[in-house]
Write a structure and sequence with these properties.
Blueprint (H helix, E strand, L loop, with lengths): L1 H6 L7 E2 L1 H11 L1 H16 L10 E11 L2 E4 L4 E4 L2 E16 H68 L5 H36 L9 E2 L18 H21 L5 E15 L13 H4 L2 E9 L7 H67 L5 H36 L1
Parallel strand pairs: 1-6
Antiparallel strand pairs: 2-5, 3-4, 5-7, 7-8
Helix pairs in contact: 2-4, 3-4, 4-5, 4-6, 4-9, 6-8, 8-9
Amino acid sequence: MLLLALFSFGGKAQQLSLQQCFIWGKQNHPDFKIQHLKTNQKKEAKRSFTSQFLPEIGVTASHAYSFGSSINPTNNNREPSNIQSDNFSVDARIILFNYSKFNQSKIQLLDVEIEKLQLHVIEDNFNLLVLEKFMKALSLQEWKTSVSFQISNSKEQFLRISKEVEIGKRAKSELYDIEVIFLQDQQTLSKIIQDEEYAKLELIQVINSPVVNVSTVLQIPETNDFRNMHFNVSKNSSLQKQKVILEKGKEEIKQLKSLFMPTLQFNYSYGTFFAQKIDGFSNTTLQFGSQLKDNKNQYVGLSLYIPVFQKGNSLQKQKLKKIEQQILLEEEEKELKRLTDLKDVLVQKVNSLQSLENNLINLVVASKKAFETTSQKYLFDKVDASVYKTAKNQVLQAEYDLLANQLDQLFFKKQLEIIFY
């Protein structure tokens, strides 16, 4: 790009690229840190399919007292019956069949995938924001260079006219005319510099980097050859996330249907107990003797649960989930249309700007030649300051239009790369 190359800064000033802004932003912006934590949270919540069928094993111990009385059958008399009891057991249970476990693992995997895609959505939105701030600051920076170059011409004319007025070669009114032009150019440059600093400050705040300041020189971004780029709407992170959410919804419907399926559980218990009569708490003993060995027992069993009636809750949840799926499908279609329209508009804008670029380049060249001719005429007092100012403003306007065209091309191309490439 001819004009952008002309406007590029030299020297050893600190430079900042658009890609570096993306990198620093992702490192420093809290939204990325929060989303990374959410993704890790889903990963920690995810369990493998086989782990859900591992046995649950526990140890139970109890120490209890029972105070009261009972009838002695040998003499038919009521006697005190205070009993200390201690129970010990090891219990285990294993789920042999539970259809809901099959879908639960899939849903957890999809939850992790959704959070990963959400991170990409956040990244795309953040990059678009950085791109907007970067291009705004870059356009002011480049425009400042063009205006500074024109001010040097105005200053040269102002100094020349001042000397000619001093020697009486020109009227003092002509000095006032060129002085007004020179001061107006200085005012314009001061305003551009202020706007540039504000724009760079906004960029710095977005990327949250302490090593960047308003004097940093922004580098002109590079883009791929637009003719060789193929933009695919299906690659958009937002649309991919929508598809995974739909897939998760289908698995959740299967999960709700599993509530009508039977569950089979294996139970096992190995335990023993100790019991003896006591007069009171003071007679508590932990000398179990042979009772723990003699009272050992085991329990083995299968438990089958078949849902019969659930008050219609499962059916209602299924209906609501199906409606939710329909809403998600409509939202996916809406998002697909929005992205397709956006792609078409951006591509059309780039093509339109490219078709105008050559004419704008020719206009810059022609306006500069006209300005050189007018400057020579002004030098020999053949035109007045107003004609000189008009010719100078034509150059500035032509350069501004070309700069805006080229930067807009960059802006729209980068948008296409971020959203669809």
